Every structure is written in structure tokens, then in C-alpha cells.
Amino acid sequence: MPELSRRRRLLVLAICCMSLLIVSLDNTILNVALPSIQHELHASVSGMQWTIDAYTLVLAALLMLSGSTADRLGRRRIFLVGLVIFAVGSLLCSLAPGLEWLVVFRMVQAVGGSMLNPVAMSIITNTFTEPRERARAIGVWGGVVGISMAAGPVIGGLLVQTVGWRSIFWINVPIGALAFFLTLRYVQESRAPRPRRVDPVGQLLVIALLGSLTYAIIEAPDAGWTSPEILTFVLVALASLAGLIAYERRRREPLIDLRFFHSAPFSGATIVAVCAFAALAGFLFINTLYLQNIRGLSALGAGLYMLPMAGMTLVFAPLSGRLVGSRGPRLSLLLAGAAMGASGLLFAAFDAQSTNPLLFTSYVLFGIGFGLVNAPITNTAVSGMPRTQAGVAAAVASTSRQIGQSLGVAVIGAVLAGGAHAAATADAFLAAGRPAWWIIAGCGAAVLLLGALTTGRWAKATADRTATLFDEEEQAQRAAGVRS
To answer: Which of 27, 297, 341, 435 has the most CB atoms within 10 Å of its CB?
Structure first.
């Protein structure tokens, strides 16, 4: 592939960032629209959970498959297909006649979304070949998440208040169309020299595990944890997990190489991603319902109220990237865990909703924490990994983020529904929400603890041993290829 000019490389980066923007913006905008969707489509708490989790579940299940398919068939080709499916899914969401159809169309969106972010990251990696330039490009890429956090609630609130909730999906169509034509014109095709084999059995087991676990958590408050339906789905989840571990251990090129988890930094980053994004999803879910249903704010008012949190994320995300580059991931993770945990604690123990100064302090703390946590996740996941495995390690970290969002909405929503069945009064809602805030505070504490445990000397030694294991296997494969 010929070397591109600096201007052309920056244009490719901008195109890839456009895809990340519509995928990230979609979730933050949707949260502000949830009360309007609830009223118009007569949705229960579990119905609102499914409008979010149907998307994040499909996205989590297909990220690694889409990445390997792009390596095999061509990254630009799969990226283009993803843009079309995402835009069509968004248009269908805006036309959904009922809640069930909205959930189905959100799943269509997610199929397209799974072909965008991991493939765009591969395109960036292959476009920016110089390490320092690549690090800057990935820093810009990460900053787009902060932009979506800041812009999503305000844009969503404005659209919902002036046009209606269906308009939040329209914004994806022109951006997707522009990205499509720019990709055709400026992005070169690329493939992996040795793409990974498809793992259909592992893929099906991942889908069964994530789907059955999330269904059990969301539906348990209504059906009861001991009902035959919920117990069946819990058993399916456990059986899928056991089957996945047993099958992937025997496969030569598994969907998820379990040896990655011999590295403490990788294991820590995976769990940190789940905890941090579960906290974020739960935070947005419960706050949106509180501000609009209990405080009576408009969608735009709720978006503006959460602007301090989004603004802090926008400021601290790039700062965290520079901090990780100069001092490693440890300090960012420790500060992130402390800030997110303190935010949840203010809500759980000190009723931060009772006064605006406390409420905004909690928002600022959470925004700082989430802004700091994103950059070190990928860095820690690939720490010490050989370059040939870095892409797969980063894909697992991305999948963990989506799993965290699914579980956050499922668990926090289930706690709310179980506590007061949507809690119509302020006192009932606050009482039902207190256990949810303790869970969010616990997620912050887990980030703090894991940041301390998985970034020290012992953790680095486990990462080095894991890297040596993969290096020896690669050398053996090369030797076998030379002999043959």
C-alpha cells in the first residue's frame, strides 16, 4: 500500500472519527429521549432497558467477528457495509410503530455499528504507521467519545423537545452518507496478511451467554428470580460459559484466546472496562429518569443539567491520554476509580439529589473519573502483548466496554424496577435508587482496586510471561513453515 500524504492521512482519521461519533452519539442521545419513548410507546422500565441493551448486546457479540471478517474480506469494504446498515437501521428506528419494532431495529443498527469502530481502528493503525503519529491519532479517536458525551445530551434534548424523539435517529443518516462517500473517495483497501479463522461455535456461545444473562437480569423483577423462565435462562448462561471455556481451549485459532488472561494487566483492563462502562450506563439511565420523571425537567433541561459531567469527560479524556503516555496507566486508573466511587457515594450516602450544589459536584466527579478511565483501558490491555496480538487484545477490551454497558443498564434498571416499579413519587424513586448508587460506587471502587493491583511489577511480570508464550508459539509456526 503506497504511503499517503499527511493531509490524506488526517482526512482518513476524520472519516473514521465520524463513524465513532454516530455510534457514540446514538447512545448518549437515546438516554435523554427515554422518558419520551416511555410515554409515547407505553414502555415499562424493562422495555426502556431493552431499547439500550438490544443494541449493546448485539454490538458486543459481533465486534470480534466483524473485525476478523474485515481482515479477511477488506477493511474498507466492511466499513462501507457497516455505514449503510447503521444508517438504514437508524432510519427504521425513527419509523418504529411500537416498542418491539424499535428494539428489533436497534439490533439492526448494532449489526452495522459492529462493523464500524473495530474496523475504523484497524484502518487508523494501517494508515498511521509511525508509532508516535499513531498514538496521537488514537488520542484524537478517544477524544471523540468525550465530544459525544458532551454533545449527546444537549443535541438529544433539543431534538426531543422541538421535533420529537424519532428525530434523534435522523442525525445518523446524513453523517453516515457523508462518511460513506468520503470513504469511497479517500480510504484505501487493506487486508490482514494472515487473517484469523472464523469461529462460528464460539460466536454462537458468546451470543447465548450474553443474551440469556441479560434477559434474566432485566426480566427477573417482573417474573421473579425463582420462576422457571428466569432459572432456565440462568442455566443457559452458565452452560454457555462452561461450553465457551471448554471449546476455546481446544481451538487452534479461538475467538477469545484464554491465554490472554494469564496477563494480569489484560485481565484487569477487561474487568475495569466492564465496571467503568456499567457505571456510566447505569449513571445515565437513572439520572435521565430522575431529572425528567421526578424533577419534571424537559429533555433539553435534563441534557443541560448533565453538561458538567459531559464537560469534565471532554476535558479529562485527552489529559488522561497524555498522562498514560508519560507516566503509564496506573495514576489515571487510581484517580478515575476514586472520582467515580466518590460520585456514587455522594448519591448513595448523602442524597446528592437533595441540593443542586451536591448534585453538580457528583456530576463533575463522575465526569472526571470517566474521562480518566477510557485511555488506560486499551493501553493496559495491550501492555506487554506482542504486536501480532495487540489488535485482538484491543478488540476484547472494546467488547468488554459494550458488555459493561449492557450489564449496567440491566442491573441498575432491575434494581429500580424491583425497588419501586418505576417509582412514581420522588421519595419512592430515591429509595429505590439508593442500592443502584451503591452499585455504581462499588464499580468505582473496583476500578481503583484493579488499577492498583494490575499495574505494578508483579502484573508487568505476568504480561511479559504471556508475551513470551505467544512469541515462542509464533517462532515455532515460522519454523514449521520453513521446514514445509
So the answer is: 341
